[in-house]
Amino acid sequence: MAAQEIESGTSWGKELWDQFDNLATHTQKGIDFFERFGNFIRDRSAIEVEYALKLRRLVKNYQPKKSKEDEENEFSSLIAFKNVLKEVADLAGQREVVAENLQNQVLQNIMLLSKILREERKKALNQGAGLTQSLHTQIGTLDRAKRSYEKAFREAEKAIESYHKADADFHLSRADVEKQRVNMNIRNSQSEDAKSEYANQLQITNKQQQQHYQIALPEVFNKLQELDEKRTRGMKEFIKRAADVEYEVSPIIARCLEGMVKAADSINEKDDSMIVIEKYQSGFQPPGDIPFEDLSKSDPDASNNSQTHNSSTGLNHMTGKGTTKDKLKKRVGIFGIFTGNKEDFSDLPPTQRRKKLTAKVQELQQKVAQEQAASDGLMKMKGVYEANSMLGDPRTVEEQLNESVNRLDRLRHELGRYQKLLEQANNQTFIQHSPQSNRVTQNGQRSSRHSNGSSNHENSHEDNGEDHPDDAGSLSRSASESSVQQAQNGLNINNNGSSASPESGLGTSHTSLPGSGQGSTNEQPMNEEYYEAETPLGTCRALYPFDATSEGSIPMSEGEELQVIEVDQGDGWTRVRRFSSKGWEEGFVPTSYIECTLYA
Questions:
Q1: Tens digits of per-residue pLDDT, 260-272?
Q2: pTM for this model (two decimals)
Q3: Are strands 583-590 and 594-598 parallel, antiparallel or unpaired?
Q4: Burial annotation 530-567 (CB, 10 A radius, 16+ → b, else e)
């Protein structure tokens, strides 16, 4: 690898052999720039988090306020805007994903690589500095050896010159000449030794210098080149990774934008216009033409009275309640007309009143169905206790059953009252809009009457100020029982499809309870039908162990197989049968604790 780089001319060790300081500065600046890029990613991630937070705050601030009336009649534009807000919230979530991925997948790796690069650079620079210091030391030794050699050489030359002068001087004794000759020999010997040392140090220095600039220092420079290229590759990879983070969320962002477009396409101006009509339509007819009053041919007082009557009649149609002109000014807007503060909604215009009454009837029908299911469950539990006293005392549920029956009677009575009010409101509408209203009303009434005590129940409320209690009671009873039947079918109640079945014990009125008098004769048929249904409906397996702590329940262990005698009636309990050492045992277990398999 290094040989290929040297041959290709891209090796720092070969091309930049004398640029140690510049390479040290360059690599430091490169790492600083790399860390600055990391700071850029960090700040961008913070901006993404802030952007997502502001988007969520924007969605929260512009979230429409919820109201029951608006939920029933929501404009398509409002629904679309809510969907847009949801998509914007999803966009905020994607920006948070981008911020998290930038921090975890880019920023952390940048910081880690930067730390590694700094450590490798420091190590390489220390190595290069050591090599340079070693070479400088050797060059210093060479310089000292050279200076010693130069000094010894000059002294040797001087000693030779002194010897030749002494030898030519006839006035000096032979001893003085010999002394100069010995000194010359010593100086020559010292000069040769210094020369040899200098030559030796020069050879060592040249060899070390060659090793330094051709092998040792290039290796250091190549390491610096390698870490600098690693930094550059890191920049390349992390920029791509930051873009990939955006690419990864772009399909979801695209779906969010598609959702916004879809929400916009769902807006229908015609449907919104119809909602406005349904929301604010009063149901009144526009006032008719004001007749011309010829004062010359009629009584002036009568004309004034007729004109006053017609004007007030026209105003009554316009305001919806006969509101006077002064009172009309006090209205805060059209919303005030349809508030409906009275219990029978008589303060509303006909159309709005019918809507409120219809909603009230549906609400009461649902309550009746729920209460009917609860009563049936209590009645069946009471029957089980009466059939087998080992399971529990029937008197424990008798009080609850009485309260449930009373609540059911009150709900049915209230349901009948609102059904009659709704029928009257519909009749008034037919009178205003249809010349055949009498025929429609007559055909729309139900004349069937149940013989299971409903007449007594309805007669008990004849003093409520209603014009036709019998018809209202018939309508109330049939409609309420129909609603109960629908709710029971939804709950899979096995009572032969009738809320007035002998099994329920409630269709025959509250007097069917034990000890209440008239209804006591209905107990035997109920028990007979009850025992006819003792055939297992299926099997079940216990998902969890259950310790029977309440009266009427039986214990079971996890995985135990049991027979289903009666399915859950909406109270959260299922009646099962199991075989033990004592024989067959029956009782109730929590429905959520078992997995049932019913027979086809």
A1: 999 999 999 998 8
A2: 0.51
A3: unpaired
A4: beeeeeebebbebeeebeeeeebbbbbeeebebbbbbb
